[in-house]
Amino acid sequence: MAIVNCPECNKKMSDKAAVCEHCGFVVDGLDANTLERKRRRARADYINKLTAQSMLAMLVFVVGIGGLFYFRDDTSPDPTWQSQISIGLMAIGFIWYIVNRVRLLNTRRK
Ligand SMILES: [Zn+2]
Which segments cross the bilayer (predicted)? Predict the structure, then answer.
């Protein structure tokens, strides 16, 4: 038994399974060409989705940096709550971006 990607939702499934347990796509009865074409399409869609999410993560990060400069208050030693939110956005954007890049790399390697 080998693990392959579902031609419809791109999640992992057994190559012996007749139906995808994640999306219910019926694999049984499809010829190898159709399966391969659908599989490539699902993979491309998944890569596009991850790329779009990477862009969004980058945007969140940049907004965080912008906020940090915009809400900077040199008169007070304590960061303003806006600065703290900006730092949070930067952290979320950064981590989200890295996670997406790793997922992209893992997908492309296959
Ligand atoms: Zn599926």
Answer: 46-69, 81-99
| Alpha carbon of 68 to ligand 1 centroid (Å) | 43
Distance CA 106, CA 84 (A): 33
105 Cα–ligand 1 center, Å: 21
Digit-coded pLDDT (tens) for 41-85 = 999 999 999 999 999 999 999 999 999 999 988 888 888 899 999
Tokens of 96: 């989200």
For residue 26, report the distance from its CA to the centre of ligand 1, in Å: 9
| Ion ligand 1 residues within 5 Å by Cβ | 6, 8-9, 20, 22-23, 25
Per-residue pLDDT tens over the stretch 22-38: 999 998 888 989 988 99
DSSP H or E run through 106: helix 81-109
